[in-house]
Amino acid sequence: MNATTLTTDEQRLAELGYKQELHRGWSSFSNFAISFAIICVLAGCLTTYGQAWNNGGPIAISIGWPVICVFIMCVALSMAELASAYPTAGGIYYWASKLGGPGWGWFTGWFNLVGLIGIVASVDYAAAQFLQALLGLYEVNFIFDFTSTNVKYGAHVVFAMMVAILVLGGLLNVFSSQLLALINRISVWWNVAGVAAVVLILVLVPSHHQSASFVFTKQINNSGFGHGMFWFYVIPVSFLLTMYTITGYDASAHLSEETDNASQSAAKGVWRSVFYSAVFGWILLLAVTFAANNPEAMKGKANALPIFTTALTSAAAKAVILIAVIAQLFCGVACLTSASRMSFAFSRDGAIPGHNLWRRLSSKRTPTWAVLFVTAFAVIVTIPAYFPNKLGTPVAFLAVTTLGTVGLYIAYTIPTYLRWRMGDKFETGPWTLGRKYKWINGIAIAWVALYTIIGSLPFVPEAVFFKTGFSWSAVNYAPLVLIAVIGTVGIWWLVSARHTFTGPVRTIDELDKEIALPEMADYP
User: Fold this and answer.
1) 3-state secondary structure of 224
2) Is 393 inside any structural domain?
3) What is the pLDDT of residues 506-515, one digit of tens each?
4) I want to staple 100 with a disulfide (CB 3.0 to 4.6 A). Which of 10, 248, 306, 418 is the partner?
5) Is 168 buried (19+), middle (13-18) or exposed (0-12) by CB count in 10 A?
């Protein structure tokens, strides 16, 4: 290898301090596809539908979704500009390190890592829930009794299936980068065709539909909190539906080092995946809400399964759930891909304990050990779901989704704030917001700051500390996990890491040596 053999992408990566280690074979469409697959409206919209239904009702879904998507789009556009300027697998934490220094990068990286692990866990747990429901409709009684109505037994079955799904996704991730790119390309079309098929079924099969007045104005409060808290507490809690669904689009940045023309492709992958998901997601949610002809069936439920089983024929319900399960499995694989790449990059820079192991690549140049790292911790954060009571199962799931959502959005916003603070001194890449960054960044920062507070709120009255009837099984433990993690890494930073962690490590120095050695061999 010599300097003249470096491609434009490799040269840009070298300027940022890294040599090309990962296999670069992803197209611009593949880069967009992985973020679109991770957002996966057939996963997020359907698995957290009940959170919005019970905390606001149809109005929180039909009106809340497009309004919140506008704010999310500001976050995505801000990130796209950064992805264009710094196309590396480290993505968000690399941006923060370069714009604010090692300390900013350290905390951003940990928020990003915890958020990604939470997203992996929640997606695969939800996929297991839907798969359990599907097998129950088929009355399968092999290994597990999928028709059982025992809450405790059902939680154990879902947990075991989640672990199996994680292992399968891990095997696909370590097998081949090219295979993953193919899976993500298929996933895009499955999501598009799947949404169309589900919407068509929900329009044609139900015997009757709700009115437009019901869908766009009906308020429902099954939260347990008083109606006087509806607009300033109950409705905000419903924002989890939109915020959770549209996460993970930082994957386009994490796959930069495996993408051709990364400075353009990664930026477009970030904002396009959000835009198209917002459109398809709204169409899907409207179809589901119009078909919700048995509102009582949704009371206290986390997902949209009761709508399918009450509004559709058995055959139609099976078809809808099957389409959703396959999309969710695709989504889980993509989430694990993104999280493992971020773990690899963070380990490459020495930030994770045991980093020399987690940064190892297989003979196929895939981060096998980073995949194992993410898989193991995704299981660990979901353990509370194994011990449910009448509230435990949905609360544990919603806590994990909130953990991923809040963790990721904090990580998204730290480098956005640093770029906004830098102003016109920031050196943009080929894709830029121009002067519009001032108000787009500002909206993104303000919105995420507000949602961080909202995401930390109790879901039900039983989760309010010092209140009569308080139960630990009902607690939204997402903020507790974040506080514990950030407290730990904060102490770690103050005690030792600030002396040893210097931010992104220049692996390009290794490449310089590789180039220099052949040249030196020409001299006697």
Assistant:
1) coil
2) yes
3) 666 554 444 4
4) 418
5) middle
